Amino acid sequence: MAGLLCGTKRKKQVSDLHEEGKKAINAPMLPTGTDIHPEDTLLEENAERIMLDPTSRENLKFKDLLKVLIDWINSELEEDRIIVKDLEEDCYDGQVLQKLFEKLSGRKLNVAEVTQSEIGQKQKLQTVLEAVNEMLRPHGWTIEWSVDSIHSKNLVAIVYLLVALAMHFQAPIRLPEHVSVQVVVVKKREGILQTALVTKELTSTTEMMMGRFERDAFDTLMDHAPDKLNVVKTSLITFVNKHLNKLNLEVTELESQFADGVYLILLMGLLEDYFVPLYNFFLTPESFEQKVHNVAFAFELMQDGGLKKPKARPEDVVNLNLKSTLRVLYNLFTNYKNTE
Q1: Its domain of life (predicted)?
Q2: Which residue range is the domain that position 282 belongs to?
Q3: Three-class secondary structure of residue 325 per DSSP
Q4: This prediction's pTM
Q5: Domain tally for the chain?
């Protein structure tokens, strides 16, 4: 028995040594901090696998982009009672992507509602992506995703797809600018794994991203007629003070005085003629999160009043982005300019 155990142990050591040698040979010049997955050593000749570099996953702008996309999906699919928490885990099987595409396009896809098997999930993804690609290709989109990349939970491919959908359907969100990540590309050539770091640009400037659609009045105003900007600001200040003066409040600086959301909330109460309970918001917000909460709550009040969801992000208003603040206030002005 001792001899048998000893022999088994030696076989395991030999096997472990063989695996270690295999990995050492197959993974030359692997970028630091990147793990080769076991399935990578099983890649077929000339096949490749792409994965997000761990350092990019911690990039703050990338995290911000993920949050914006998740919040957008949850807002769109609220009536379906679908809550997305993780893009990789919640989008890979095609269920969320199907519902999102149907909501955005108003088109019903002929797919099974619930699919548990891998084959069924890939069939659903195939149908969804064919519909998406058919819609996007004529508009010059480069297809950076596939059934296999989405189903294998390739986060970069999923983000590319969602950004394309958000831009094509003019989602009422502001995507963070200049978000790039590094991906590790693993290829198998003559039985040897070759790796390389490649930079992928997920978003560009707001102007370029919005360039696919009609630019709004504030883009034109700020780019080509900055001298008229003060006229617009004066008109908006007059409008908001007409109502805020009822509470003995006065605005002189649009950028800063609406950044914490308090005046926006109080203004909505005045315009719609109701009292906003103080426990619903932070009257003296101190942290960035509290200010974002306030602005987001003001946006909810606007939607409750029948207005479309503002295209600006709450974070942009809090960060003193003048164009975003002007968009929000101008939306109120056009809807309530005759309100006493």
Answers
A1: Eukaryota
A2: 217-337
A3: helix
A4: 0.56
A5: 2
